[in-house]
Amino acid sequence: MSSSSNTTYFIIGGNRGIGFNLVKTLSASTDNVVIAFRGLPSLPKNKQLEDLKKSRDNIHTVQLDITDDESVNKIADEIRKTPSFQGIDILLQTLGSRIPTMRS
């Protein structure tokens, strides 16, 4: 755990569904919540997250596209820019993805 009394959660896919509900619950405390999501903050699918972020100082967002190597490689630098960041204590991956099935 980080040296401060607050826990830092890093949630991949926290902009809707189960991930967004985790963000709402975890950010109700003073713990830091860093959310990685895909797409622009202005997209309709990210509106709920952006609205919640405006009302809570402990929510920080970074953009991440796990299908893009460059995005994955630079995410550590983006996370380090998070205010009061001292490390990730808990990583939650709530991102869903479609894996093509093989048909015979």
UniProtKB/TrEMBL annotation:
SUPFAM superfamilies: NAD(P)-binding Rossmann-fold domains (SSF51735). GO terms for cellular component: cytoplasm. Keywords: NADP, Oxidoreductase. The keyword Calcium does not apply. Pfam families: adh_short (PF00106). Gene3D superfamilies: NAD(P)-binding Rossmann-like Domain (3.40.50.720). GO terms for molecular function: oxidoreductase activity. The keyword rRNA processing does not apply. Belongs to the short-chain dehydrogenases/reductases (SDR) family. PANTHER family: NADB-LER2, SHORT-CHAIN DEHYDROGENASE/REDUCTASE. This is Ketoreductase (KR) domain-containing protein.
